[in-house]
Design goal:
By secondary structure, the protein is of the alpha/beta class. The chain is built from 18 helices and 24 strands.
């Protein structure tokens, strides 16, 4: 079904909303929909991430909920890549298990991703590069010579440029999107560049929007408008942006780091934004220097941040242990990726939990938090700042590569209420002990007058209440307990996670971090099929909140869903911690390490061993496998999702 190429109208105006292309059917009335999953599959050089981001940001500006998912190659030369965007008129919790609309730029894009398209879905393909199997009657095929038409619209030099924006115009036509807003987004994206670049992008978009799809597509679609509750506007951003601006709201004005995927964009935002608030972010020569510079900022009385991915955190470990001993507040961001070593630098894992909690010499307690969504990246940064200051301790924020690149829309934060005071306190004090045995450590900023003239010391050696080094066995025991007990005190303040779904029943799903959305959608689907199932999700991983022992008896099974390995003993990392803490034999694991986010189908298969929860079978990347051959008797219900294909 390859139509004859139709050249765009050369007289077409720059703003596509005014177009009325000839040859278009007049009877294509839009069908109202409230949810759609659109997957763009091509190469990273094609700019599909930019096209998908335009769709996501348009949804945010149109009071719709949105969530995205992307994969990018680990090599500098580029390679196959996808960008998936799910737009909904109601709450969107995951990027979707199947695509309603698949755009394939190349033959490999079609072959690798056609299994992800739902039955009855639309395959829009570049007929210049793709030859689909038209005998497969499950899908609607729409072939458009995207490459050729882009060249015609922009000139012969645009062979591999502008296809993404041309496709954006096609999608805008199919879904009756607000092209005025899209044109504005395009202009904003290229603001500051040469005007010819903006004009070229608008030309490509206009050409795509003008293409007559009427004889190829039986339906058009339009998202239902659902009136928003509340008066706050929506903002749209990715997780790294939310994390960076959350740190600013937390009153953090100083920091240091070193580039590494997928942390780097946090650092770049802080480098440009901190000076606007009178602060400074330093790109150091390596990870060891960066954490030491950040500690210097914190010692000066200014709570500081450093960050990295797993490999960089490994290099920072000794200095973070020093911060635990000296009880210096510090925020440490770990945007997790697949490991170990260089591992999967552009893929997702939750395999740095043990590193965050236990990564240090000796007993070096620290607080560990995990963001569950893009919006939560903003708010968890504020909470990390409050905890670091109150308890004078390192605080880890665990994000991951899926959150880092994922775009979501959420209510604009109420900044006047949230912004924390970053002013340095130099108020004189009469007397001061930084390490009181019966209290929580707090440091005064260097330069603060201590009226009795007894100034404390600060070092990584074990110390007495004034910070003087000591080798006393008794004092070491007391100070070790002091550093430990402040985390126990924090555990008393941490709220219990709420149970989503059934408050008691057969199965309780447990998650942390970015698995929040898929787990909650899995619960919703399972309950719709009669299962008695609930879920709890953790933001506070260390210390754990008190009172969890009251939740476990309400369910017959407790299944921890996380993106890391089963390990030697048959459990994922968080499941291992929960079993060690509560000695609860009902705790099981469903894990995977394929570098892809959890799909709802994978969770249901892992928990319910392949039982069907929908009228038709959903294609998926992996299958749940019981590892009964190597696991001891007590863990034969533990499952691991084993990848079967490309996501």
């Amino acid at each position: 079904m390859n139509p004859t190429p139709v050249a765009p109208n050369p007289e077409a105006p720059a703003v596509a909303s005014n177009l009325n292309p000839s040859g278009e059917r007049a009877d294509l009335r839009p069908e109202n929909i409230n949810d759609a999953v659109i997957r763009l599959a091509g190469n990273s050089q094609d700019g599909i991430q930019s096209a998908g981001a335009f769709l996501a940001r348009l949804a945010g500006r149109s009071d719709q909920d949105v969530m995205t998912y992307m994969t990018i190659p680990a090599t500098i030369s580029g390679g196959p890549s996808i960008f998936q965007v799910r737009i909904g008129s109601g709450e969107v919790l995951s990027a979707g298990d199947e695509a309603d609309f698949l755009v394939a730029f190349y033959q490999h894009s079609y072959q690798d991703h056609i299994g992800f398209l739902k039955d009855g879905g639309v395959l829009l393909y570049d007929s210049d590069n793709v030859e689909p199997n038209l005998e497969d009657k499950r899908f609607l095929y729409v072939g458009v010579p995207i490459t050729g038409l882009t060249v015609e619209a922009l000139g012969g030099t645009a062979k591999d440029k502008g296809k993404n924006i041309f496709v954006l115009g096609l999608i805008a036509k199919v879904f009756h999107l607000d092209v005025e807003k899209l044109a504005t987004l395009i202009k904003e994206k290229f603001a500051g560049k040469d005007e010819s670049i903006v004009n070229t992008a608008i030309m490509a978009f206009t050409a795509g929007y003008a293409y007559p799809l009427g004889n190829l597509l039986a339906k058009r679609y339009q998202f239902e408008h659902v009136a928003r509750v509340g008066g706050r506007a929506q903002i749209t951003m990715d997780g790294n942006q939310a994390l960076a601006y959350g740190l600013i709201a937390a009153g953090v004005r100083y920091g240091a780091g070193y580039p590494i995927t997928p942390w780097s964009s946090v650092m770049e935002i802080l480098r440009s934004e901190f000076p606007k608030y009178g602060g400074l972010f330093v790109q150091a020569e390596d990870e060891l220097a960066s954490v030491s510079i950040a500690l210097g900022f914190s010692i000066s009385g200014n709570l500081a941040v450093t960050g990295s991915a797993g490999p960089g955190i490994s290099l920072k470990t000794e200095a973070i242990g020093w911060a635990s001993m000296a009880e210096v507040p510090l925020i440490v961001v770990n945007v997790q990726r697949g490991g170990p070593s260089t591992g999967l630098p552009t893929n997702v894992e939750q395999s740095d939990l043990f590193q965050a909690i236990f990564g240090g010499h000796g007993d070096s307690p620290r607080v560990v938090l995990a963001a569950r969504s893009v919006e939560d990246c903003f708010y968890i940064a504020i909470e990390a700042g409050k905890i670091a200051r109150k308890y004078s301790t390192p605080v880890f924020i665990l994000s991951d590569s899926s959150l880092a690149t994922r775009i979501e829309a959420f209510d604009e934060p109420n900044l006047p209420e949230l912004m924390q005071n970053a002013k340095l306190d130099l108020t004189p004090v009469q007397t001061f002990k930084p390490y009181p045995i019966d209290g929580i450590t707090h440091h005064v900023a260097p330069g603060t007058r201590i009226l009795d003239g007894k100034y404390p010391l600060l070092s990584g050696l074990e110390h007495d209440e004034m910070g003087h080094p000591t080798g006393s066995p008794k004092l070491h025991m007391v100070m070790t307990a002091k550093r430990r007990n402040k985390l126990r005190k924090l555990a008393e303040e941490v709220p219990l996670p709420e149970i989503y779904g059934d408050q008691e029943g057969d199965t309780l799903l447990v998650g942390w971090g970015s698995t929040y959305g898929p787990i909650h959608e899995a619960v919703t689907q399972a309950r719709a099929h009669g299962e008695k199932i609930g879920a709890i999700h953790f933001r506070h991983l260390h210390p754990l909140p008190n009172g969890l022992e009251k939740i476990w008896p309400k369910f017959k099974r407790i299944v921890v869903v996380e993106m890391n390995d089963l390990g030697v003993y048959g459990y994922g990392q968080f499941a291992t911690i929960l079993r060690a803490r509560y000695c609860e034999p009902k705790i099981e694991s469903v894990t995977k390490t394929d570098g892809l986010t959890f799909r709802i189908k994978e969770i249901l298969d892992g928990v319910f061993e392949g039982r069907t929860f929908a009228a038709k079978k959903i294609p998926r990347e992996g299958a749940a496998t019981v590892h009964a051959d190597t696991a001891p008797e007590c863990v034969k219900t533990t499952r691991e999702v084993v990848p079967q294909g490309v996501g």
